[in-house]
């Protein structure tokens, strides 16, 4: 990762002192599909393992889950009442899903909130993960933990755009394919927001 890319990444983030609030950046599109019913708060960890070439940590959800089974996702989930904020949710869920010790995480900032078709308003928390942090999937929720070089995601040639029909609506979508994993849906959309904020898309 070049110094310029690192600077662009850090500049692109909302500061920890000013977390984003609902609605999500895609609210207009979601309102057409879901109406204006309140979205449930959730948070995910956009974790970058530290190193000469930072790598994004992602999971594959188990096939038996009720929602988004088998899909690639960030560690994260629904905000519990006792969490207090999105950062706490992202760290708690990451500990539960991939065994990530929160002491080995350095939060950097936030991306914009994103609304999902399943009715959540997700706050993405971007953070460094220690280079040697052990990660292992919780079998009840996660089938696999894998990593993708950030440089791969920053290369515009690796971003694929397509259109999907959903409930009679044509929805513009994006995806990445790396190492046999298809990264699409909310996960790819959150990454697209990062690329936009960095001026890379």
UniProtKB/TrEMBL annotation:
Cross-referenced Pfam families: NUDIX
Protein name per Swiss-Prot or TrEMBL: CoA pyrophosphatase
Cofactor: Mg(2+); Mn(2+)
Lineage: Bacteria, Pseudomonadati, Pseudomonadota, Gammaproteobacteria, Lysobacterales
Domain of life assignment: Bacteria
Record bears the keyword Transmembrane: no
Key word Manganese present: yes
GO molecular function, one term: metal ion binding
